[in-house]
Design brief:
By secondary structure, this protein is an alpha/beta fold. It contains 27 helices and ten strands. Helix 6 packs parallel to helix 7, helix 8 crosses helix 9 and helix 26 crosses helix 27.
Length: 694
């Protein structure tokens, strides 16, 4: 209590003392047992300024952008030749030779908008252009401009443009520009409208007379150009737009050539780029970079597997290993991981040199006697590899093929584009339909130059598959995409319909936008009659708009490019007649019920992976061939009117019947272990098929 009274008395005395700001500042009163202050306010700092700094702390977001040109160069890019040429024409000429524009009285472009899917190289292209020109470069992320305080976002935007004008000639790059320039009519808050208005004003202030005839060019990047305010895209602001889509095979080969030149490969770079470019449709630059990184990781795992397998373990160390080096790999959990990578270790001699054998210390076993710790200790304590040994460590093509199994393109992660693993071998019969699809879709995608030489082009065509349910229409569409190596988008007709006005049409446009970005692409519309019914007086206005949108996308002003449309329906009479005219779905293919010989061929395909036998075990291929022939003959004789789906259900029912008989015999129980992969007690016989038919 006495201490508290002493402190209160001291502070009261200090409060009554008048402080002369022009004179000496009296020392603060001494407070018993109080810590010494570490800092005292200087008289040069007014209290109001201090209060202001506290108030604005954390609210102002002045952009601290680096003005140094980036280190990226155009040689680091690939597959964007057209975009580079356009951007150099729009940016390099005004920046390097402004006197030409000043002399002719021509206003240089103020803004260039780069748009395309994520990962296509928009940001890298802007950095490469600035690096080549060597001019000041201000890079700003649009979300960093937005502030929670009223007026701070606009102030930050003005400061950014003022900074660019002070460093003119200059390039101002705004990434994700759609974050600060949405459509004002759909803006949720008044602040968003103010930011858009401020941005438009700043763009107008970049005229010649406001920048002392030194150009300031704004480069914006977005993957949502349709969400920008229309006033931003008019002449005098973002004068030009450059679309950067998903690269084609030639573009992917150029990107891979740039990426692989930095790696040590086991073979010529051209062989790798050609093979990988064909196997990666739908991949953008970022996906290809991820693929090369994954292949590098697999190669490193393969190399370290060789190290852990005893390549650098001396005979003395191997004798001290509790279970040997191979046991160490299994105990470390690396064996299963490394076995998943198909590439072989290769002919790499990992025998240590004489110097290494002499210099390699024989380390004592670690305190932990587990194989894991021993393997890791041995690996970490081994001496560095010699240049001769390092020269044999390379990344092989099987490493890239293994990486393809784990790498997915960006569009696939979004759930839109897939790569079907179905081929013609998975389809029995339907040879006539397959030949028609080969010429309509597969050959134009695989060999487009043949059609170009004839002068007919390879523009996307449309095919309508119609017939009874279960005849393989969907399977045919998947096989077409798989055989051609194209991307595949499967759309069920009703899933595009939405109760909100305009949303169904937007969903249709989005499908074709993604397909064009992932070209070559096969778009499959299942149950097409639900999406484009016949237009008449009974059709609602919303359904008619969806039909009109799809007709426009199929054959409108916008070219489909290498987008092939395959539709399927079992009610062709319900489709709008305009869908089946030439230029849209111009090839109609009837998929009928299979004939007796086709049923036998389909059955042979379906039972290809089924364990068959007339006895509990089938060990001879000749015996299996006999059983397959009998089952195929059964399908030909007693399955009249069956479709492919019916035959697949028959195979499943026969397999379930075989399993049921084994369970009823008591050989298997619910609680006991199941039949292993090599257990031949369960096999499907001809008798099971006959029972399934009865």
């Amino acid at each position: 209590m006495s201490l508290n009274r002493s402190m209160q008395s001291s502070w009261n005395t200090q409060r009554k003392t008048r402080i002369d700001l022009n004179g000496d500042v009296p020392s603060p009163p001494t407070i018993p047992n109080a810590p010494t202050p570490t800092a005292v306010n200087t008289p040069d700092e007014p209290p109001a300024q201090k209060r202001k700094s506290r108030t604005t702390h954390g609210s102002s977001k002045r952009v601290k952008a680096s003005h140094e040109p980036p280190t990226t160069r155009l040689s680091d890019l690939g597959g964007v030749t057209n975009a580079v040429e356009k951007l150099l024409e729009l940016v390099a000429l005004p920046v390097c030779h402004p006197e030409v524009y000043l002399h002719t009285g021509v206003q240089p472009p103020r803004g260039v908008l780069l748009h395309g899917p994520p990962g296509c190289g928009k940001t890298m292209l802007a950095n490469a252009i600035a690096g080549e020109l060597g001019v000041p470069f201000i890079s700003v992320s649009a979300p960093s401009i937005v502030s929670g305080m009223s007026g701070e976002s606009e102030k930050t935007l003005r400061d950014t443009f003022d900074e660019a004008k002070k460093n003119a000639p200059c390039l101002l790059f705004i990434d994700e520009i759609d974050a600060i320039t949405p459509k004002r009519e759909s803006a949720q808050r008044e602040m968003e409208r103010r930011i858009v208005a401020q941005f438009l004003t700043c763009m107008d202030d970049l005229a010649w007379e406001h920048t002392e005839h030194k150009p300031v060019i704004v480069i914006g990047a977005t993957n949502r150009p349709d969400s920008l305010d229309p006033a931003l895209r008019r002449a005098g602001r973002f004068d030009h737009e450059i679309s950067m889509g998903v690269p084609d095979e030639s573009g992917r080969q150029q990107i891979l050539n740039t990426l692989l030149n930095k790696l040590r490969l086991a073979g010529p770079t051209e062989e790798y780029t050609a093979a990988l470019a064909r196997a990666t449709p739908g991949y953008v630059g970022a996906d290809l970079a991820s693929l090369t990184s994954a292949a590098g990781v697999i190669a490193v795992k393969r190399i370290f597997k060789g190290l852990l397998s005893g390549a650098f373990i001396t005979s003395d160390e191997a004798a001290e290993a509790p279970q040997g080096s191979q046991s160490a790999i299994q105990a470390a959990g690396l064996d299963n991981t490394l076995e998943q990578t198909d590439p072989p270790v290769g002919d790499i001699e990992m025998t240590p040199s004489d110097e290494q054998q002499e210099a390699a210390p024989v380390s004592d076993p670690a305190p932990s006697t587990t194989s894991t710790s021993y393997a890791l200790t041995t690996l970490l304590s081994s001496t560095p590899l010699t240049p001769e040994q390092l020269s044999k460590l390379t990344i092989s093509l099987p490493d890239f093929l293994a990486a393809l199994e784990t790498t997915q393109p960006s569009a696939t992660r979004e759930g839109f584009t897939t790569r079907p693993d179905v081929s013609w071998a998975d389809i029995g019969a339907l040879r006539g339909i397959r030949e028609e699809l080969e010429m309509a879709v597969v050959w134009p995608i695989r060999r487009p130059e043949l059609f170009s030489d004839l002068g007919v082009g390879t523009g996307g065509r449309g095919v309508l598959l119609w017939g009874p349910p279960g005849c393989g229409k969907t399977l045919l569409a998947k096989a077409v995409a798989g055989e051609s190596g194209a991307n595949f988008i499967s759309v069920k007709g009703p899933e595009l319909l939405n109760k909100y006005v305009g949303e169904s049409e937007r969903a249709v446009r989005q499908v074709f936008t993604r397909a064009r970005a992932s070209a070559p692409c096969v778009v499959f519309f299942d149950e097409l009659d639900a999406l484009v019914p016949r237009r008449d007086d009974s059709l609602s206005e919303s359904s008619a708009r969806v039909v009109n949108t799809l007709l426009t996308e199929l054959d409108g002003l916008t070219s489909r490019g290498a987008v092939y449309v395959v539709g399927a329906t079992n009610r062709p009479d319900m489709l709008d007649p305009a869908m089946c005219r030439p230029g849209r779905l111009d090839k109609l293919l009837y998929v009928d019920l299979p004939s007796p010989s086709e049923r036998g061929e389909i059955m042979r395909t379906l039972i290809r992976g089924v364990r068959l036998g007339s006895t509990p075990s089938v060990s001879l291929d000749s015996e299996r061939d006999i059983i397959v022939s009998r089952i195929a003959q059964l399908a030909m004789d007693k399955c009249d009117g069956y479709s492919g789906a019916d035959l697949a259900a028959l195979v499943r029912e026969a397999a379930v019947g075989a399993l049921r008989s084994v369970i009823l015999s008591g050989e298997l129980t619910k609680d006991g272990p199941g039949a292993s992969q090599g257990d031949n007690r369960i096999s499907v016989t001809l008798h099971n098929f006959e029972q399934a038919l009865s």
